[in-house]
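Exercise 7.
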Amino acid sequence: MKKVVSALFLPLFLSASSNSLPLSEALEILKNKNLEIKAASLEVKSAEEDIDQTSGLHWGKLDFTQDFARSNDAGNVFGFKLTSREANFGDFGFSDFSMTNPNILTVEPHDLNYPQDRNFFQSKLKYEVPLFTGFAISSYTSVMESVKNIKALDKEKVLSEKVFQLKKSYYDMALLESSIKNMEKILSNINALENTTQTMIEVGYAKKVDLLEVKAKKGNVERLLVQMKANEELLYHYISFLLNEKVDDIEVPTSEIAEPNFTDDDVLTRNLDIKKATTALDVKASMLDASQAAYYPTVGAFAEVATADNTFLGEANDHKAYTVGARLTWNIFNGGIDGAKVEKAKIEQLKMQSQVQLAKKGISLQLAKIKTEIKSANQEINSLTKELELANAIYENYEARYKEKLVSMNDVIIKQSSQIEKILQLLVAKNKRNEKIFELEKLANGEK
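Solution. The predicted structure, written as tokens, is:
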């Protein structure tokens, strides 16, 4: 009978066909097509636009206003004419003025009180610019830049998580295929044992119950194979989801994943959560600067040019006018509100400093935990490998002894069950080891 081969004594996995998708290419597809990564990239671009919006306040604003009105209201008509530099003495009602009228002061000028209706077109160009805002604009710009950096770190974290999931799926597939091959080898041995038992029954050296036991074990192995192949199909669906395209054949890794050589300092320096907390601390510092802007005066200036007429741009050059000005605003007292805002900003900054330290402590604890779990998984794999080797040898021994009628078929089946159990336990242990190694890479956000 063919020897059952342990998963550890052969290359762990067989190479795939030339049309299979290798992990390196899958990672590139992931970065370009994964929908969550695309969404995170758009968040970064959105934050960049927020920076442009805030920094744009430095340049002020230029507005063009075009007014049109028509009125016979005395005040409006007189104002229209005055604005367009076309008022005359007749507009004051001088046609009703008479030096011989002793009650001249009580005369109500008809031309002034009842003017003809008039159109009014005014074109105005106005530029307003902040000259000094107590560093508020620059502070808020710094806030937006830090927010953009946080969004970029969020994107890197999403990418790191998806890389973790893709790599784990590839190595899960490799372990699954290795286990399937081992189970198929066991199924082949059971088929051979079934044929042997049938022959022994025919010559009177075995009982029918022996054959029933073999068939029951065969059904159990076939059921496990069906489950494994179903899990294989689910993994392909998940990889297709990650890559946002149909994948039905991958090039599984040909060796076990190596444990990365990250020092604790490497992890603390590169970890995205710590970087994000540090960047959030920059946000709090900028918010403190922005709150302190209330202690400074604000200075703004404006310049305006306009022209008006009873027709659109009529005699624009003759009717043009300009206005320039500036304004200083300085809050002297507002009930201590500004001081309270500054103190709150200082407290938020201190709180964020504590959170940065907490993030570093938390990552250090998580790092120690993962390294311990990897060490434990390595020891478990070594132990299970030896146990599987022993289970293989025992099964072969019992199979040979059964042919010599020294043990029962039930004894053989029990030893084969132990063999299958060790294969499945080894699969779980290796899967756990891979997962912890990928978690370590994700913690350090390093891609291999």
